[in-house]
Amino acid sequence: MTTLEAIRGRISANKFDPTQELSLQEIRELVDLAAQAPSSFNQQNWRFIAVTKKEDKEKLTALAYGQQKVADAAVTFIVLGDLRGHERLAQALEPSVKAGLIGAKDVEGWSGMAAKMYSDERMARDEAVRSGSLAAMTLMLAAQDKGLASGPMIGFDPEGVRKAFGIAERYLPVLLLPVGRAAPGNWPRKPRLQADQVLAFGSGAGL
Ligand SMILES: Cc1cc2nc3c(=O)[nH]c(=O)nc-3n(C[C@H](O)[C@H](O)[C@H](O)COP(=O)(O)O)c2cc1C
Q1: Distance, CA 168 to ligand 1 centroid (Å)?
Q2: Closest among 152, 150, 178, 171 to 56, alpha carbons compared
Q3: What whole-number distance in Å separates Cα of residue 203 and Cα of residue 185?
């Protein structure tokens, strides 16, 4: 499957085959692919909780207002954004230093810039949502390539999910993302607005 086929072929699935399972290795691979997404300063401030056990799925389904796909999909990811990801920038950049791509001075400089930028709580929250969303989209396209369906969801109680799954305050639940084999009965591809309806050249005046 080409990238363009994955983009044009993906749908948000509502119906998943409840008998299908994914191995830990397959789940790890999906997250490894999601983590190839870009992030500001390469801070990689996304985190994922893979919910696969029946009792955990039931708990999560109730917190998603009974949306059955959470229970039926082989795995439902809780995609998190770290509100304090910039504090771990040095750690996130260590492999780039080891690979000789950047030096200690870059890490120091970028850490200073990031600390300043994200001392603004709104910026920190925006970045958590941005990074979580980019990683989730990358995961959806990777899943599509592997013949798996996905369904991004904001219909859940984030504070309830935080409590039920023991998620620390620093992590913002950004999306739920069920992934698995599609069952019959999903919507077909939904049409989109045309490019000219969402695109302006050079200024926002046309929008
Ligand atoms: C941020 C986000 C949140 C969404 N939340 C839900 C949800 O809680 N429940 C649901 O059934 N669909 C949800 N959707 C799916 C959208 O309804 C779907 O993506 C949209 O109708 C376009 O359909 P398509 O992805 O199949 O092209 C969500 C999608 C996004 C991107």
Answers
A1: 26
A2: 178
A3: 42
154 Cβ closer than 6 Å to some ligand 1 atom: yes
CA distance 124 to 90: 17
**Is the minimum distance from the CB of 35 to ligand 1 under 6 angstroms?**
no
Distance 38 CA to ligand 1 centre (A): 22
Q: In what order do the strands lie in the sheet with 171-180?
A: 46-51, 75-82, 171-180, 149-150
Q: Residue 202's pLDDT band (boundaries 50, 70, 90)?
A: confident
* 42 Cα to the center of ligand 1, angstroms: 27
State pTM to two decimals.
0.97
Percent of the chain with pLDDT over 70: 100
- Give the chain's domains with CATH numbers: 3-206 (3.40.109.10)
User: In the numeric block, which tokens belong to residue 17?
Assistant: 């085959």
Per-residue pLDDT of 2-61, as tens digits, reads: 999 999 999 999 999 999 999 999 999 999 999 999 999 999 999 999 999 999 999 999
Structure tokens at 151: 């369904």
Question: Does the structure show a pLDDT above 90 at 207?
Answer: no
Q: Is 22 helix (H, G, I), strand (E, B) or coil?
A: coil
Q: Are 171 and 84 in contact (CB under 8 A)?
A: no
